[in-house]
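Hi all, long-time lurker, first post. I run a small reading group and we've been trying to get comfortable going from sequence to structure in the token notation. Rather than ask abstract questions, I figured I'd post a concrete chain and ask someone more experienced to write out its structure so we can walk through it together at our next meeting. Sequence below, copied exactly:
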Amino acid sequence: MTRKSRRLILISACGAVLALALGLILSAMSGSIVFFRSPTEVAAQGVAPGTRFRLGGLVKDGSLQRGPDQTVEFAVTDTNATVTVAYRGLLPDLFREGQGIVAEGRLEPGGLFRADTVLAKHDESYMPREVADALKAQGRWQEGKGMVDKPNPAKPADASTALTDKTLGQRSER
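-- Answer (accepted) --
Happy to help. Here is the structure in token form:
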């Protein structure tokens, strides 16, 4: 056996071992390679208490309750299901009701999600895909515009536009 063939066999054997190891790692992680779960997935899949995962959705309007020692409780929804989240710590600056978040933590036996990390959206266009799909189905989401409020008959449609046009006109005259 020549020196070149021994080297080729050694490299091939190392490559096979690495490929096998990578295959085993990916197969073990196949169920956990998820960016987050929506509240509907949590309800449908019956996630076992104590399971660590990421929960993503919108902060439900009117659900934010602040307690002592930086404790916060709020509900995360995807318009189909809702999960109550408890968190202790400082919330991100962009955190507010009606906005998309991803919380990382564990589900407790009573259905309460105890978060140890809360991530808020990073810009105006961020929306979890499942939540955006649910809002599109309801007609409350438009690509590029985000959340669309239902028309309010008490407010004229052009009131904000007229004010903006007037303000822009004054700025351009200066």
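A couple of things your group might point at:
Residues 151-174 have pLDDT under 50 and may be disordered.
The chain has four helices and eight strands.
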